[in-house]
Write a structure and sequence with these properties.
Length: 112
């Protein structure tokens, strides 16, 4: 698979490396996770935190990692992204910071 192809259920949707598109993708992924908890009315914004605002637990982040891989393939490595953080940074991780990581990762893959 070449870096410009997407994977998983979103194969029909082109992958765009801009914050608005990535935020929309991520919001859809989070809707899947939040629906399991009956939290479908939570608004996801760039400043939304995974822990405090969305109340996601570590197992939810594992599920999110899988959804990111389905959408973006190996171009976005969520585990590696988290591994470079201190515990406090992970606790305060915002949707915006993840969106920025995804955009950078996609842009880097396109440059290769």
């Amino acid at each position: 698979m070449n870096p410009s192809q997407s994977t998983g259920a979103a194969d029909d949707d082109p992958v765009r490396a801009d914050e608005e598109s990535v935020l929309a993708d991520l919001t859809g992924m989070l809707a899947i996770l939040l629906d399991e908890y009956g939290l479908d009315d939570v608004e996801v914004r760039m400043e939304t935190t995974f822990n405090r605002d969305l109340e996601l637990e570590s197992i939810d982040l594992v599920t999110l990692a899988g959804l990111l891989e389905e959408r973006y393939g190996e171009r976005v490595n969520f585990a590696e992204f988290l591994a470079g953080m201190e515990f406090d940074e992970i606790i305060e991780l915002t949707v915006g910071r993840l969106v920025e990581h995804v955009v950078r990762s996609l842009e880097a893959a396109e440059a290769v």
